[in-house]
Each structure stands twice: as structure tokens, then as C-alpha cells.
């Protein structure tokens, strides 16, 4: 998984029609969710920051952001992006299943966006991560994750998922994904075809695996980890969101 995101880091903004606009839009949506679900909040721990899509926008919105990811090249790219924007974000490399050991506790919000949790391929691994998120939060703190709604997807065979065509640096890039299912586990291959206007194009290929876990099962695992008020929220972010609160007495 870390190799997937390390290799993808130079190309990752191409996933969005306009990455800079997406940063601001996602931050505004997350800020609204945080205020609605928690009220006042200052500190955010992003445990799957990637190249910084959520972390950068939240820092620009005034949050004190700490961010980490398993992929060192992606974290390095995020650090450069923060520096160029004049943002102070503490970045580091760590598996989300070791978040508390690495970051400690006391955060108002723990965040994992972009369908990152389903990179963990078993319920046991997800439960370990959720226990770490729980420990990282202050009493009454809020956890937010965004995920694909696998309950609406036929989880068998091979699916082709087009992303789109992008233009950058005088080149055209065509992006698409292939999903190959083996029960609830599937292999995802992302193809980025780079067209420089020459006779031949260059194909960049990136491979990873996901667990097509349903949102009701994720909610069960949150509750088993000790969270309360766990619920799904739709139509507020580019993916469905699950919010979960650490009890105030915990």
C-alpha cells in the first residue's frame, strides 16, 4: 500500500479535475461537519494524510493540524505543499494502527479521508485502528472517516471505473481504474496514460488492494471500539462520511 501511494504522489492531484479547488471545498465541508457535530475544535489529527488534500485545507481554515501517513514519499510531497503555502503542519510517517503510540492523545478530531480505512484488509486490523483513533481523542472528541459505499456495488468480477482526462504541463493524462474482486477483497489497478502529443504514449500503472467492507459493518466496529453516536452522513462530502464520538467520561 505504501508503495502505491509513494509511486502515485507525483500524479495524485490528477485524480481531481482541480486539486486546489478540491482542497478548499473539502476543508469547508469538513469544517462544517466538525462545527455541527462537535462545536468548537482546535486540534485535528489526520491519520491518512497522503499528499495533504484534507490536512492542507484544514490548516488553511485555522485548525492546528498534525498529519501522518504510511507512505513516506506522499508525506514528503505534503510537507512541500504545506511549506509553499506557509502552513505549519507536523507531518510524520506511521501506520494508522500505531497512531496513539506515535502521536499520543488529546486531539479534538481524528480524521481519515479518501477511503483509507478499507486498505486494512481484515476486521481485526480495522478494529486495531479504531482503538488507536479512540485513544488519540480527548474525551468527547470526534472521529471522522470517509469511505466508498460498497453496499451499493456488485462485489464480484471485474469493474472498469473511468476517472477522466486531465491536462497539466502541456500534456494530456487519461485516468481509469480496474477493480478485480475476490469475494470482499479486490485488487485495484490505476492506469494513467500520459500523452505528450508524440506518436507513442506512456502508461503509468499503480496497484493496491482494498477490503470492500460495508458501512453498517464499519459502524459496528466503531461501536465495539467504544465510540458512541456513530452514524453515517451523506451528501456533505465527496464520499459518505461516518462520524463517531468518544464518550465524554472516557
Mean pLDDT: 96
- How are strands sequenced across the largest beta sheet? 3-2-1-4-5-11-10
Poorly predicted spans: none
Summed up, the helix count is 7
In CATH terms, the superfamily of the largest domain is Vaccinia Virus protein VP39
Report the β-strand fraction as a percent range. 25-35%
Distance linking N and C termini: 33 Å
Largest sheet: 7 strands, mixed
Q: What structural category characterises the helix and strand content?
A: alpha/beta
Gyration radius, to the nearest Å? Answer: 18 Å
Portion in helices: 25-40%
If you consult CATH, what is the topology of the largest domain?
Rossmann fold
Shape: globular
CATH class group of the largest domain: Alpha Beta
* Number of domain units: 2
Number of strands: 11
| CATH architecture term of the largest domain | 3-Layer(aba) Sandwich
Give the ordered list of helices and strands: HHEHEHEHEHEEEEEHEE
Amino acid at each position: 500500500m505504501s508503495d502505491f501511494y509513494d509511486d502515485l504522489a507525483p500524479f495524485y492531484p490528477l485524480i481531481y479535475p482541480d486539486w486546489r479547488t478540491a482542497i478548499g471545498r473539502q476543508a469547508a465541508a469538513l469544517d462544517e461537519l466538525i462545527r455541527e457535530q462537535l462545536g468548537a475544535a482546535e486540534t485535528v489529527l489526520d491519520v491518512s494524510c497522503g499528499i495533504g488534500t484534507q490536512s492542507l485545507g484544514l490548516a488553511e481554515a485555522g485548525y492546528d493540524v498534525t498529519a501522518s501517513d504510511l507512505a513516506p514519499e506522499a508525506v514528503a510531497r505534503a510537507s512541500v505543499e504545506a511549506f509553499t503555502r506557509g502552513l505549519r503542519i507536523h507531518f510524520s510517517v506511521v501506520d494508522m494502527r500505531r497512531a496513539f503510540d506515535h502521536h499520543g492523545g488529546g486531539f479534538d478530531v481524528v480524521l481519515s479521508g479518501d477511503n483509507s480505512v478499507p486498505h486494512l484488509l481484515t476486521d481485526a486490523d480495522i478494529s486495531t485502528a479504531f482503538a488507536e483513533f479512540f485513544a488519540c481523542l480527548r474525551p468527547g472528541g470526534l472521529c471522522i472517516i470517509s469511505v466508498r459505499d460498497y453496499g451499493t456495488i456488485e462485489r464480484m468480477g471485474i469493474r472498469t471505473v473511468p476517472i477522466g482526462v486531465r491536462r497539466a504541463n502541456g500534456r494530456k493524462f487519461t485516468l481509469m481504474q480496474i477493480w478485480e474482486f475476490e469475494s470482499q477483497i479486490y485488487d485495484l489497478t490505476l492506469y494513467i496514460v500520459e500523452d505528450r502529443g508524440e506518436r507513442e504514449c506512456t502508461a503509468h500503472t499503480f496497484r493496491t488492494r482494498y477490503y470492500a467492507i460495508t458501512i453498517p459493518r464499519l459502524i459496528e466496529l466503531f461501536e465495539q471500539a467504544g465510540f458512541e453516536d456513530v452514524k453515517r452522513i451523506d451528501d456533505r462530502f465527496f464520499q459518505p462520511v461516518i462520524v463517531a464520538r468518544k464518550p465524554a467520561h472516557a
